Amino acid sequence: MLIVMHHNASNEQIKAVSEAIGAMGLQAQPIPGSERTAIGVLGNQGYVDDTALRDLPGVREVIHVSKPYKLVSRDFHPQTTVVNVAGVMFGDQHLPVIIAGPCSVESEQQILKAADLVKAAGAQILRGGAFKPRTGPHSFQGLGVEGLKLLRQAGQRVDLPVITEVMRIEQLDAVCQYADVLQIGARNMQNFDLLKEVGKTKHPVLLKRGMSATIEEFLSAAEYILAEGNPNVILCERGIRTFERTTRNTLDLSVVPLIREMSHLPIVVDPSHATGRRSLVAPMAKAAYVVGAHGIMVEVHPDPDKALCDGAQSLTGEGFAQLVIELRQLQALMAGGQV
Amino acid sequence: MLIVMHHNASNEQIKAVSEAIGAMGLQAQPIPGSERTAIGVLGNQGYVDDTALRDLPGVREVIHVSKPYKLVSRDFHPQTTVVNVAGVMFGDQHLPVIIAGPCSVESEQQILKAADLVKAAGAQILRGGAFKPRTGPHSFQGLGVEGLKLLRQAGQRVDLPVITEVMRIEQLDAVCQYADVLQIGARNMQNFDLLKEVGKTKHPVLLKRGMSATIEEFLSAAEYILAEGNPNVILCERGIRTFERTTRNTLDLSVVPLIREMSHLPIVVDPSHATGRRSLVAPMAKAAYVVGAHGIMVEVHPDPDKALCDGAQSLTGEGFAQLVIELRQLQALMAGGQV
Amino acid sequence: MLIVMHHNASNEQIKAVSEAIGAMGLQAQPIPGSERTAIGVLGNQGYVDDTALRDLPGVREVIHVSKPYKLVSRDFHPQTTVVNVAGVMFGDQHLPVIIAGPCSVESEQQILKAADLVKAAGAQILRGGAFKPRTGPHSFQGLGVEGLKLLRQAGQRVDLPVITEVMRIEQLDAVCQYADVLQIGARNMQNFDLLKEVGKTKHPVLLKRGMSATIEEFLSAAEYILAEGNPNVILCERGIRTFERTTRNTLDLSVVPLIREMSHLPIVVDPSHATGRRSLVAPMAKAAYVVGAHGIMVEVHPDPDKALCDGAQSLTGEGFAQLVIELRQLQALMAGGQV
Amino acid sequence: MLIVMHHNASNEQIKAVSEAIGAMGLQAQPIPGSERTAIGVLGNQGYVDDTALRDLPGVREVIHVSKPYKLVSRDFHPQTTVVNVAGVMFGDQHLPVIIAGPCSVESEQQILKAADLVKAAGAQILRGGAFKPRTGPHSFQGLGVEGLKLLRQAGQRVDLPVITEVMRIEQLDAVCQYADVLQIGARNMQNFDLLKEVGKTKHPVLLKRGMSATIEEFLSAAEYILAEGNPNVILCERGIRTFERTTRNTLDLSVVPLIREMSHLPIVVDPSHATGRRSLVAPMAKAAYVVGAHGIMVEVHPDPDKALCDGAQSLTGEGFAQLVIELRQLQALMAGGQV
């Protein structure tokens, strides 16, 4: 931590700040400059709360050097984490994973048909929501535990692991029972109680970035899960909220190579929620591969125009099958070291 | 709802859209224009899901006229709602309410001292967090139920109602038992399960705007609570996330007169979380009064430099007392119809 | 400047960075910590370009302590600047200034009528656009020099100084000839050539914040003008672009007290462009007073519904007269030290 | 255009709005609904100014159906535009174009060496800034006309067309004389006078998206140029400003397929300015190819660590040569219809 003093801070003020640092059990190292003095703080283990310092007289600014996360940082854990989902591997040295399925489990017929479609096309994990967060109270809210069972049944039929969202702690046991991956949605990225409970399981977790979460906040949320003892976290970029509203969100693809530098956790991309438009899903999925994503998650519905949620962003079975073919071409090219 | 067709949409495409509208039990009214045709949709009760329409051939855009909220809308309920918190009234025809107290309940001594301070200065409701959402897992997480009890004890001593945040459904019974107002934090504004459960109580609720929530989403979140039968909702603007990071958030004060036009619910302002800087709290609190807020919520700590959370944005007892004096001057001026 | 090294940076890397700092004529001061080493940079006069450092092996981050502006900083110039516009004073110890008039000068009759209205109501400076930036090419683009002459004529008739926007350098002579204050619009806030030319005059300048400009960029733009020798700069907050689009922009009022801390320049607020809605102009104007603005600029049109631009945000003569009355009440209260 | 009336708007109000529409020479078509009446506006040619309508009593909202641009819209001009830059073609049916070179022309030696490097690696157009917009007044501002001459000299030596930014109208003649493509920077995207003057030439123009410009504003800016008679416009996505500041901007790649749907103009991507970090340039450049960009523009500097501007985001010669190899692999794959 670095305390930047005002241009005209007095020696007494500098001394007082140094003493306050000492009172926190840390060491102060003043760095006099031509324009102002800064005071380095030494001896801390990780992030330091600056409350006792930032309002002291003469202090202009407090600059944090340590980040509020450490377990997820590549700086401290250079080796890449590989998350194993029932034999499907997310991480470096493994091919990108394709997760696909409908936004919601709507009926037995629908999820079985979707499972057939995505399996035939080449998906490796089946997705489907049983508990749905919806912006308005008058929309379809999901089938609940019944949806979980249907999802599992569909997964078993086509021999695919399944992923579904857990929205609250009381659902956790049921979701753990039926799903191979626990999805934490964007709206829950900072539901810290839920993160902690999920961290107490060993279940693989797919953690979506909050729609206005910085990279630092995203990694700090993952830190909550690792701090409880669960290292099996897959990060998921799904678009951020910006002034641009022609697309549902703005897919921040640069976050993929950036997080690969900053963290050892695998990261996947959800182009369906990010764009909200069917025609943009395939190009952005391919772009995700190219920037180094460890997987993608796309919405596929047997009959998108009749979907109970998010139909407009869902691929048809044919569209998805074509996308998988193209992704495999890309993958082969990349595996050959050509891209 | 209005379906805007492409410039060169064929008559068959227009007909197909009209038929799809009919299949939804609604009426289509084509509006031919010089450049393109639009198709009005009649007969709907409230918001219509556009999934079955927006991807039909020839459709360029779907424009929603109805909003996803209705119960909270002033359009349908012109009369202002007044929320009664143990005799303290939020709403038109009532003076703005001052809510004050520390970010967190830290100890018996601290909350009692804070209660004395804010009561003496003129606050009408005591705030204090027992369950705390924190960005990183290594920060102080609140005292839990013990904190609730201390808050209630402090409120009783100084004869003030109390408000505290409820973060998850399992905490709801305890919070209802000890608190007069249930606070839903910004991170939980779209925790729809929690909103529904809170909606099943009759407890007054203070609903904070999510940090990247549009006004429409904010009002839709309140709709969840009203839809379950609880009309006692107080909205709270607490700053939105923007590119500007010198302040913690950007306090969007224009939302106050705007929401007064759009909704019948009372709205208060939290200048402490919005700005994150002590020196900005008093000016923004006064500005909130002037734009018509039904109250403010400010952080006050007996010893901000030793606060376990958010000390840097907390007022001291003296600072708060001075602010109340100035707010009362403003209030008198406004009550006299002079401003 | 502070160079933060990676956790596992080698001593050779630390040494190489120190030498690179030395090669820039500056001194390096390593600050070894428990987790990583940081290297303080001493001896710089102001902002340092970090290009030669930030990509050296082992460097994790470069943190700037000095700001890219100095002349506008209160840190170095504690005394408040007062800008004198033909006897109307902007700055501390002076009452807030009211600037009013139509978005555009449309005709002799319109601007004369507007001048009469705003003068009668109590405005101290008349505004009116002669050169207009418009988002689309098919909109009214302003009367040009003819508009300047009409504005000056109207100002003279009612004995008010006038302000108008200068959009390009070739207009500068004409605008200087006819106007008392040169307005730099939000879109030109980083038109550095224009800033420099304006800086070579002694004319008062009203510099609007760019719609996505940080406070640091805003102050840096003002620095351009001061660096050329013109100290007569009035800053103007006019709303920033955020995800919220119900209002045209989000008026960032906290910037007013914040800039008063950071800079010695006066700052005014434009609630008309910020909100884009007539009903929000008066409350936000009053809020601007309360947070310490040195003035406001509002759009007033004799017949808003027939205005050629921005009519929907313009006050009528009556609305403006009522606002001035209320602002004077507020001002009296504040002058009495009561707020 | 659609006028949405309030729920409780009276018949008189509906009639008054209809009459106001008639007074504008347009036809009103009321669409009564179960909750409210909407009024369609017929007979307009393109975008209609709503000033005279939106504040009439009973009006809740005005919804625009027509866009403020038409010449750039694919809706009206389905055939793709191909822009020819001295034989290098931007547009569908042509391979993506690689533009490369230093941020600024710094010296004869530097630009000649850069030209050699980028030519050898496979670039098709040489870039280099002669006039530089810089955030602070104390930074390197470019070599001006001398820089233009050096850039042209370097281009001729390696037989590449050149592109450089024009910042103001007075520079236009000189830039037209020496450059093959006129670049309009992000800060000037809404410098409408400049757009118009550029529109009067026949020179190819590369128009960068403003850092907070919506897609609609971006296309409207291009409309300015086309409206003056110059159809040779290449759009350029270069990142938008969001709350995320770890990268310089957020590269909005979904804009590429989206603009290809909405407009017939070619679009290229600048990953260097968008990310501001060297390590992100190559992945994002490849992603730009995959989403369908008609070209990329990257910064390459013979010695990035000594660059006078933006060195930290510049590729070295080796890095750039490697990127071109990988892009050509991608291109071959895409040309083969495999991606």
Note down, in words, how this protein is organized.
- 4 copies of one chain form a homotetramer.
- In chain A, helix 3 packs parallel to helix 11 (317-335), helix 6 packs across helix 7 and helix 10 packs parallel to helix 11.
- Chain A has helices spanning 11-23, 51-54, 108-121, 145-158, 172-178, 192-200, 215-227, 255-262, 271-275, 278-291, 317-335, and strands at 2-5, 27-32, 37-42, 59-63, 83-85, 88-90, 97-101, 125-127, 162-165, 181-184, 205-208, 233-237, 267-269, 295-299.
- Chain A has an 8-stranded parallel sheet with strand order 13-12-11-10-9-8-7-14.
- In chain A, helix 7 (215-227) links the parallel strand 11 (205-208) and strand 12 (233-237).
- The two termini of chain A are 40 Å apart.
- The first copy, chain A, is elongated and about 75 Å long.
- By secondary structure, chain A is an alpha/beta fold.
- Chain A folds into 2 domains: 2-63, Phospho-2-dehydro-3-deoxyheptonate aldolase, domain 1 (Alpha-Beta Plaits); 83-335, TIM Barrel (Alpha-Beta Barrel).
- Chain A is built from 11 helices and 14 strands.
Highlighted features:
homotetramer; 339 residues; alpha/beta; Alpha-Beta Plaits; TIM Barrel; four-stranded antiparallel sheet; 11 helices; 18% strand; elongated
Q: State the major sheet of chain A.
A: 8 strands, parallel
Q: Structural class of the helix and strand makeup of chain A?
A: alpha/beta
**Average pLDDT reading of chain A:** 90
Strand content of chain A: 15-25%
How many distinct domains of chain A?
Answer: 2
Query: What is the CA-CA span between the terminal residues of chain A?
Result: 40 Å
Number of DSSP helices of chain A?
11
- If you compute it from the alpha carbons, what radius of gyration of chain A comes out, rounded to the nearest whole angstrom? 23 Å
